[in-house]
Amino acid sequence: MRIRATVAAASGALALSALFVLTAPAAHAGEAVKPDSALPVISKVSVNGGKDTVLGTTAPKTITLSVTASHASGIVDGWVLLWHGTDLDEGLDGVLVPAGGVTCKNTNVATTATCSVGLTIDPRTDLRKNKLAGTWHVLTGVTAKDGSSTYYDSYATARVQRLSKLTVNAAPEPVRKSGTITVTGKLSRANWEDHAYHGYTGQSVKLQFRKKTSSTYTTVKTIKTNSTGNLKTTVKASVDGYWRYSFAGTSTTPAVTTAGDFVDVK
To answer: What are the tens digits of pLDDT across the range 136-191?
Structure first.
């Protein structure tokens, strides 16, 4: 079963309820099971190996979701999905549910297992609103061989971000010593609503320089992108070297750094 991220809050909640009926009959949706020695214990949840999930405008991406848990009788099944919003009952505005089957494998002891499943996210159908960028909740649960279950509606959080792009151009080249170098560029990011890239406005970006004889970049100044995401600043030429822009990223957009643009100083 695949629930698209564009479902309405009400229908999304009903879909999640149906999911629990099918996979977790011992649990009640939207409510974490209290720790109990007779119930399975979840020790770890992983989304994309702990890395942020970054998507552009068109290309789907498949990531791995996993949950590790233990129980005296062993673990027979597990499930992990991502949801976006304030709560499962009335504040749900996005759901990402794996379509494939879950595989559970024992670790070094028979009572502990890691259950994994692939999740393919297509920005054209699963992420149609830019507001879905940022923090998602991780709903997860497991079932033991004796039939007991444990789950949490928000065991952890994970970030789904809009792919960023950054350019740089330092000119003129070559330039005379003590002459003026103009460094231009643009910071843009994926727009999931029209499937294009648009300038990311009002963002701080570092201009960095590395001498031809060095392997280390240093920050020369920090400037902000304008209303269209463009960057422009000037510096004095002193020695041969490479100029680049570096953006630290935000909660919705990943960090990005350009390659160095070499300028020969005569």
So the answer is: 999 999 999 999 999 999 999 999 999 999 999 999 999 999 999 999 999 999 99
Domains of the chain, each with CATH number or no CATH:
9-161 (2.20.130), 164-263 (2.60.40.730)
CA of 240: how far to CAs of 164, 227, 243, in Å?
A: 29, 32, 10
At residue 13, does pLDDT exceed 50? no
| Cα 243 from Cα 263, distance rounded (Å) | 8
Q: What is the pTM of this model?
A: 0.86
What does the DSSP 8-state code read for residue 32? P
Q: Name every residue whose Cβ is closer than 8 Å to that of residue 144 and which is 6 or more positions away in sequence.
A: 39, 40, 71, 72, 73, 74, 75, 76
Using CA atoms, how far apart are residues 219 and 251, in angstroms rounded to an integer? 23
Band of residue 35 on the pLDDT scale cut at 50, 70, 90: low
For the chain, give the mean pLDDT.
Answer: 89
Cis peptide upstream of residue 174 (ω within 30 degrees of 0): yes
pLDDT of residue 37: 64
Write out the H or E segment, with its range, that includes residue 168. strand 164-171
CA dihedral over 94, 100, 101, 107, signed as positive or negative: negative
